[in-house]
Request: fold
Amino acid sequence: MFLRGKEGDIIKLINWETFFINLQQDVKLFIFILGVFCLFRVGFIAVMHSFLSEAVTMEDIAAALYYGCRISLKSAGLMVLVTFGFCTLLNVLVRWTKLSSIRFYLGAVYVTVLSFLFQARIPYYQEFHMAFNQLLFNTLNDDVTALFQTVVKQYNLPVRLLSATVTAFLLCKVLKRWLASKTYSLPRFPHWYQNVAVRVALLVTIYYLAIFVRFGGSMTYAYNIDWENSGITKDQLLNEAILDDVQALYRAYVLHERVRSSTGLDMDPGRLADYGGYVSERPVSSANVDDYLRKQVTTGAAAPPRQVFLIIAESYANWPLLPQYKDLNIANGLKGIIAKDNAVYVPNFLPNGMSTISGVMGVITGLAEANLYLNYLPESYKEPYSTALAPQMKRLGYTADFWYAGPSSWEKVKDFALAQGFDAFYGMGDFDSQAGNVWGCDDYYLYQAVLGRVRDDRPGFHVILTVSNHSPYTVDLKKEGFDEAVVAAGLPEKLRDDKELIKKLGHFWYADKMLAQFVEAARRQYPDSLFVIMGDHADRLNIETNPPLYERYAIPFVVYGKGISKESLPENVAGSHINVTPTLLELIAPQGFEYYSLGHSLTKGNNFGMNYGFWITPGHIGNADNDYTEVHGAPGLAPPDRDKIRQEIDSMRAISWWRIKYGKSLKI
Reply:
């Protein structure tokens, strides 16, 4: 960076003094931003400490802080890289003193954004048990008004905004003082080669520091730390705390893009035919995806039910049905149905996705979650998918209607349901209701509307989607007869005074009570009927802060009514929302009826369920994208073969992704 002139003078190509001073300012900003990340990490753990498992030790917390600091080197480095370009390098070339003030303003923007993200992370974790995930990219597709009102009421938005503003203001004041602290001049030596050596050493140091920051506190990629390998503790909260908000947002983006583009699956037509062959369980030679999905009813029903009610209950998880939670008494309604002789219950069942719309899409279309937002794709409005449930029920002579307790504009659910073969759609604006919240009316009014409008002059298929068991939890529980003392008595001692938790459990109790009352009333009004009951998703509410995978994600699947007995489904079956269509059709359609489905019927002993991120069998549940497995249920059942797990998941995902993305043909 120096040349020797004819007279032996050093010709400066870089203003090294300016460069060195600006470099120190960048280092100051880097240290400050890194400190902010670490401060917010400690704050997050402190605020959310109730989510820590009892097995957590100080060593675990120290490890989380250490690895968190390492991964935040990357985030801080990325931010300071911008100021290095806009301030340091530009100032060396332009030599405009006011450029240095840009560094403060950029830093102020950084800490302000981080302050608001910190406040957003807390309710987000409470809701999803993650520090931001791919659902962020569906926010604008959701009912933004209802979502905003929920955040305001449920999570004290004004208080959080004020806290973030005050935090950002104070941090900016500290940053200004920090950047105004003393800087040092570049050392000068009497001989030109000594000065050159110092400058070369400075550049080399910058280079190696950049590598150190790039790899998160390591000098090689082999020891690199990133969001994919940072979960080093045994605690979910600590693993999420390791990721700062920048890394969490980056993870959300990568996962969104990865699933959307089916990264990791070979999508060429030849491989897809192999997947189709596995799904069909029979030899098929065709360039039409639907040919691999064609099935026939094996046994069938001689006298099908006249009315079929399929209830998708908001946030109805399976864990309240487990024996260890019986003293809570919040699921007695569904338990009563399960106990009947003409009812069968599947405890090994997963939702299609982590949100209501994903679950609804899985039930309506029979296709696995592929993060492609079927309700916004033009392909979904051309014609119903061959695996869609409503058209196949209509071929059996049923009319098909969809009942939703919320607004019909939510997620375009009305347009999508009608496009996928339903004859009619009814939202909260189509019937009377006197109570509810921004997401919809209380379940009572939805069920009353169904009972008042369903006609028995012809066979009918009715999908019912509830909303009451959803934040901001506005049901008048006292009016409904909810006894807080009963639920509190069933809680661990440390949670008996947790009014917010009891309120949430009260809404589960209300949803269960309304469901059971509806089933009883509909059974009296339509004796020749069948009820299929399931949750839309779980992972919203648990007693334990770090529950096992089974308690966190499993939902119930119950079939009750005409033609059903405890022997209608074999023991030890498992499935997910994509298994609803084949199971229902095998129970009510005549022998030989041809239908289309991706999943297999539970009547045939299907013992594997999968969804967007997990798989389940009787006795085991695990992560779909790694080898993590947990045992649940009856002991002694053999774990599934790893090759079978991989084949099942890849096949279901590949077929669904291709059918949604490219249509019926294997040829693009």
Summary: The chain has two domains: 6-255, 269-553+563-662. The first strand starts at residue 2 and ends at 4. The chain is about 45% helix and 10% strand.
